[in-house]
Fold each of these.
Amino acid sequence: MHVDFLPDIILGNIFSYLSLQDLRNSSLVCKRWYSILNDEDNDVWRWHCIRKLTEEVLSSDLLSSTPTYKTKLKAFHHAWNPEDCSRNIYIKPNGFTIHRNPVAQSTDAVRGKIGFSHGRHAWEVIWEGPLGTVAVVGIATKEATLQTHGYIALLGSDDQSWGWNLVDNHLLHNGDSQGNYPMLNNAPKYQVGERIRVILDCDDNTLAFERNYEFLGVAFRGLPEKLLYPSVSAVYGHTEVSMVYLGPPLDG
């Protein structure tokens, strides 16, 4: 039987065994294949999710901001990088959450798997354990340090990283405070479990944040035109931080 006469359900079953690169290429073959693969919540993407993601994370609230199987899969491929973190950090089996081991006099950081140099990108960070004296969320280049002695704001301590310290609401870059953030009188402090949305605009070279869906304003301008990675740095033992990539931010 010619492939054109195969029912959609059979084509979908075949597609579920292809790699993501092959699926991307397949979507360009014809309108019918594009239509099947453009359905982000069909069995093709469901089977890929089941193979890559744990049942625990698929049934949890962690991925509630990624409504389709395809967006959940994309979030997984953008999650924390187990090969690009401090030796005192490990990635939990869910693939989205780091755990910092209780090592004294150390500050530890992690980067996401994929960096960005063009387009607009958003991701959520959820601090699921105590903040300690310093807890910084932001971005870093590949050159930024991922571990140092003592308890410091590691993210933002050099010219290769930019961060927001959730403990004292200071912006940090190149070792200096860039002022308070958000620019509000008596701005509330971060509460453990709140979702911080990070918005990186590589076209406008800016970094901004939202908290509980409230836009807090642009935090950094004039970012360099190089690969920038989601990043956090932490000091508290047993603290855990999750990151979920969302894709292009929704305006308004």
Amino acid sequence: MESEQIKTSVRGGGNNADNSEKEKKKMALMRVFVERQDPDAKEVDNLTLRRFLCARDLDIEKASAMFLKYLKWKKTAVPNGFISEKEIQNELTQTKVFMQGRDKAGRRIGVVFGAKHFYATREMDEFKRLVVYVLDKLCASMPGGQEKFVGIVDLQGWGYSNCDIRGYIAALDIMQNYYPERLGKAYLVHVPYLFMKAWKIIYPFIDNNTRKKIVFVENKNLKATLMEDIDESQIPQTYGGELSLVPIEKSTM
């Protein structure tokens, strides 16, 4: 399955045999290099290496540096190999992250409510653990042949008490640097004018690959926009679909 996913990668030419062969050769060279630097790299599959390679546009040196930084981060940020719900109890009680349904490509759908996050009560280390917990659960629920997820960021009711620039940048840093090529698309819905002031501060911290995946959705076109990629049966009821929201800690794979 892993080799098939690599062969059918749409990055850099999809089914083009030359591009696929070039990618495989670069990935092999990258593996030799990173395993020399950190023996733990031997435990990482080729699909993971490929995501880091693609995130750096097939530049072996840059991709290797990014990957080795990830291995170092994981040893300290996730020493047990996973984040337990006991480690993020305060964050989970806010019931702000949900996971249910899949889009037409089979990508898992996560929903985040920005107005349920409060800067004043946020503890940064626990918040970072929540981000890792959410990303790990989204990734673990992906079917074979799919490596990305879809996010809906709902900002209805968002105000100054919810504004957490440091938290947003920390979440971006984790997703972009340690979970590269995992985000398929992010819909920003019910965006208040006030949020755009925060967006101007956050935007420079978003890399070009991620920027291309972010879609601001007008309220009047909300359901129609979601239905371009998601069947009505998989759209949350709050957006005119048929699916109930499920808190991420209660969501099954």
Amino acid sequence: MNMLCRVGQVRRCAAGLSLNIRQVAASRQKHTLPDLTYDYGALEPHINAEIMQLHHSKHHATYVNNLNVTEEKYQEALAKGDVTAQVALQPALKFNGGGHINHTIFWTNLTPNGGDEPQGELMEAIKRDFGSLQKMKEKMSAATVAVQGSGWGWLGYEKESGRLRIAACPNQDPLHGTTGLIPLLGIDVWEHAYYLQYKNVRPDYVKAIWNVINWENVSERLQTAKK
């Protein structure tokens, strides 16, 4: 009888632990798809409305949804002390977490009022580290076009040296988490970002996107990175 009581207690404890894990996962604040500050068609003719609608409401939304699911599974594995499950979930966390981070930056890097030039400290830093805005554009465009398969081209800030750097990341690898550079400006070269309009001519898309860059946002990111 005592043995049966102990077994019953263990089962109740296990059930309670499982409930607590689910409650913790449910109470965690979930990631959400950020709203755009402009209409899907606002970046035309450089990026058409159909691409923007699919890119934001479908592709980015999928990263957000999958990140929430993966984080919930990770929290459960963490609470159970299941290291094997935690390790197995790392690729999904990196991919979907990176996708959410990258796109959240990307939308703010774009504006219907682009086509101008950066001002102030940002322009000074660009001239110091690349010689001119045109040279920076050429270098970043080349690195971005050269991404094999899917990925991103980035202008980042290296805190140790106080310099601007250009880098490319495969897939949805987040710049800061994989290189240490703080992201200032990103160009998405996954095919879903341009194929419906530019087909397989990635260089034309990269050339066009400079017309809708939000330099004010890039400048604000630089100021924040330097703190």
Amino acid sequence: MATEGEYESILCVKPDVNVYRIPPRASNRGVRAADWKLDAPDWTGRMRVTARGKVAFIKLEDKISGELFAQAPVDEYPGIAIETVSDSSRYFVLRIQDESGRSAFIGIGFGDRGDSFDFNVALQDHFKWVKQELEISKQSQTPDNTPKLDLGFKEGQTITLNIGQGRKRDKSRPQSAGGFGLLPPPPSGGGSKIAPPPIIWQYVQPASQPQTTRCLLDLDSSNSNSVVQPNPNPAGGSDMWGDFSAPEK
């Protein structure tokens, strides 16, 4: 049962729940909600599911005043404190208890299937948490007999460290102005040197200069001082440069 000093947490609240008086169980077969007077519930109110420690409490309270009508402590689920019926998922058999410890079985039901689903899941989650807490408690109390790995030094055991004796860098390699080392020349194969590539000479033909128009000047290569005589009677009666008029006097 719950101990004093533990805080109470609310797991689920449903505003509408119906309570039924159920007939005594005639055999060990499952309880059927069809045997109840479903159309005439004996009490209607709200249901509040709380938890203190590992124990859950299903409390039936008045909708307006909040006065407690009955409550059922639940130590495990599914269990004797709350059972499902065989013909519906909306109805349950609840074992209620008073302060003196007397108990009675009543039937409860929800009008909405979603309310019964939430009620069922709230109880499942709580007792799933209780099971995990028990497993953790058992593991903490069970001594660990597995051999532990000893990484400590044995008596007289020593260790040698080589510090500062790494591979020295080659400082004879020349470096460029940027601080990066130059690559060495490729090794010669068999002592023979690689001949430099041949120099190819190419003759470029100069561009031909345009010939001077023979109509302007016809120079004799043998007599550069001779004057070209103009044609007194050009063909067609006009100069090839056009007709020129005499200047006015």
